[in-house]
Amino acid sequence: MNRILLPTLLFSSLLPLSAEEDLLNFKNNDTLHGSFNGFSAEGKLVWTNQQAEKPISFATSEIRRVIFNKGLLTKPFTHTHTVTLINGDVLPCEILSIDESKCTIRTDYAGTLQINRNQVYNCEIQPHGQQVLYQGPFVEDNWKTVAFKEEEEDESQKVWEYANFSWLNDGHTGAIINQNTELPDAFRMTFKAEMARYSNIYLAFHANLSIPERKEEDDTKVHAYTKSITENFGSCLLLRITSGVTYLSQYSFDENGAPIVTKIPTTLGSTSARYSSEDYADTHFELRVDRQKKVVSSYADGALIAQWNLSDIGYEAKGNKFGFANLNGSNRISRISNIVMTPWNGIKDSALSLQNEQRDIALLNNGTDRFSGKILKLQDNVVTLKGPYAEMEIPTDQVKSLNFATEGFAKKDEARSNDVAFRFYGSGRLTANPVSGNEEGVELEHPILGKLKLKYTYLSSIDYTPDASIIDRWNLQLK
Predict the structure, then answer these.
(1) 5 vs 110: CA distance, rounded Å
(2) How many CA atoms lie within 13 A of 24 on its CB side?
(3) Element holding 401 (H helix, E strand)
(4) pLDDT at 3
(5) C-alpha–C-alpha distance, residues 332 and 46, integer Å
(6) 28 contacts: CB under 8 Å, gap ≥ 6
(7) Phi and psi torsions of 162, nearest 5°
(8) Which of 18, 225, 307, 469 lies at 20 to 30 Å from 370 by C-alpha?
(9) What is this structure's pTM?
């Protein structure tokens, strides 16, 4: 049972009441809007909303997560580095120094921290996708839902239903379009896709939401799917995902304004992600796009499964919107959640692993060059690395990441049942046992960092089931 123990301190009355922008999600999938007001001396979470005369206390054993400010950014970090610990925690920070025994970092949320080097998995000096353009869905306000069939426009028959911080489709053709996020020329998008067997999910991107005037009205040669996509997304690229296999097509219009579709061959072939069971697929997808270089890559559960070169197809999609669509019908179920959109700095994963048992590895910003040996120190913005042939000094502005030899890692401690995950906006988390708090933050007992005080300002959520998905099982009752 994940319960916060605050033996003597009561501070719920000290926190200022903000607008009701926080969300409280329970393990039975109920969600309550209101304002987070800290924890009581008995260890219960204190909550206020307009319908209650007094603050309400909830046992944390019944809570799945707390989301602050609808998951939107409250205060940005002043630092851009990250340190990943061997237990999987990711610390946004500024790396001040590294020597043979410790790593010293500065954080906005917990001050200056010293970490034993054998507890550090790697250091990202130029992290991939540090700026978050979109994260969610935590609310449905930013999305527009569209039915592709007139009979499905009945309000009682929702095409896409927002529930439990995800978009669910029960097998009705239609689209959801993000209205506020502007895609940059190069971006990285990750999301979780759950699909019943033989279902498809379609991701539209670089959509301009513009339909030219038709000079001829002959729809007999236009496929219904093509018409539906172009009527709602305009010109766009459309990624079809089915059980992990991905296909890419360009949707546009001819000189008469008639919709046309161009299938784009992959340069790598394709592979499929494994089903989580006999009935459905549960996959973390990643899309990397560089419009200027005309490159699109698709990943499933961390593995590259397809790549496309757009240079030879007369690439036309110039829009900056995105959304998802279901073209299946037939009551085939799909769900989208955990969407994160960031810029992409163009660095491609190395063909070989960046982890070595005996050698530290420094990867440079060009994504190709790397040096192995022993990282002696990082000081005054210079990394000193002793290689097999020479000792070298590398300016940190040329370094993407430092990856440490695995033989030096400390033995991992077993996960503690009372740990809670404190997640930062964008990327990063601390998994620790909360022990006390006040109006500004909570004091934690971390298995590696020891005692530290964490400010609420930089958090996007508190998760009481750190390793569990928002969706615990494939079940329509989760609606």
Answers:
(1) 20
(2) 21
(3) strand 399-403
(4) 35
(5) 40
(6) 62
(7) -85, 125
(8) 307
(9) 0.65
Q: Which helix (H) or strand (E) holds 230?
A: helix 224-233
What would the 3-class secondary structure string for 168-224 be? EECCCCEEEEECCCCCCCEEEEEEEEEEECCCCEEEEEEECCCCCCCCCCCHHHCCH
| DSSP category for residue 408 | G
Q: How many whole angstroms separate alpha carbon 240 and alpha carbon 201?
A: 6
Q: For position 216, what pLDDT does the model report?
A: 66
Instruction: Write out the two tokens for 445.
Output: 């007992």
* Phi, psi torsion values for 326, nearest 5 degrees: -120, 120
CA gap 296, 433 in Å, rounded: 41
In this structure, which amino acid lies at residue 372?
Answer: S
> Which amino acid, residue 430?
L
Residue 86's contacts (CB-CB under 8 Å, 6 or more residues apart) are 119, 120, 121, 409, 410, 412, 448
- Asked if 224 and 261 count as a contact pair (C-beta separation under 8 A), the reply is no
> Contact at 8 Å (CB) between 362 and 393?
no
CA–CA distance, 273 with 458 (Å, rounded to integer): 35
Tell me the C-alpha distance between 454 and 445, whole Å. 11
Judged against a pLDDT cut of 90, whether residue 102 lies above it is answered with yes
For residue 347, what are the contacts with CB-CB under 8 A and spacing of at least 6? 128, 365, 367, 400
Task: Name the percent of the chain in helix, strand, coil, to the closest 5.
Answer: 10, 45, 45
What pLDDT score does 128 carry? 52
In whole angstroms, give the CA distance from residue 252 to residue 258: 8
* CA 77 to the chain's CA centroid: 17
* Domains of the chain listed by start with CATH number: 81-129+348-403 (no CATH), 134-343 (2.60.120.560)
Contact predicate 372/361, CB 8 Å = yes
Q: Decide if 323 contacts 341 (C-beta within 8 A).
A: no
Question: What is d(CA 350, CA 358) in angstroms, rounded to the nearest whole number?
Answer: 19
CA distance 266 to 269: 6
Q: How many CA atoms lie within 13 A of 34 on its CB side?
A: 21
Query: How is 117-159 classified by DSSP, letter by letter?
Result: GGGEEEEESS-TT-S-SEEE-S-STTEEEEESSGGGGSTTS-S
List Cβ neighbours of 449 (8 Å cut-off, separation of 6 or more): 113, 115, 430, 432
